[in-house]
Design a protein that fits this description.
4-stranded antiparallel sheet; Nuclear Transport Factor 2, Chain: A; alpha+beta
């Protein structure tokens, strides 16, 4: 039975994509892969994974109530992978009152203890 595609938009089956990271079998090797897996974690309400992949200096208190948004799809607009910091620009769509809306963000990721972590949104990218 074919697997459904990963919600991150990669086109790969979940078990061969973000499922590897959410299960703990692997850790994303790039900021873009981390961004995609975090989108899937938001869909699943996986607070533990989100905490693990957020820079500890910036991680807010998270709980399941924070996971009520119904995310529908993700588009990676562009990403710039660096050696110690990376940027990922994306648009994520969600449903609110049966209407699809989107949010746009440019995210900063940094290497922390040899792993990519989400740091914060940035105001612009030049």
């Amino acid at each position: 039975m074919p697997q459904s595609p990963c919600p991150c938009g990669s086109g790969k089956p979940m078990d061969e994509c973000c499922g590897l990271y959410l299960s703990g079998r692997a850790y994303p090797g790039t900021a873009e892969a981390l961004m995609r897996s975090r989108f899937c974690a938001f869909i699943r309400g996986d607070v533990s994974y989100l905490r693990k992949t957020w820079h500890p200096d910036n991680c807010p208190e998270l709980n399941l109530a924070d996971m009520e948004t119904q995310w529908t799809r993700l588009e990676i607009i562009r990403s710039k992978q660096g050696l110690k910091k990376s940027l990922v620009e994306f648009r994520a769509w969600y449903l609110e009152n049966d209407t699809e809306h989107s949010m746009h963000e440019i995210s900063l990721f940094k290497l922390y203890k040899k792993r990519w972590v989400y740091v914060e949104p940035l105001p612009g990218w030049h």
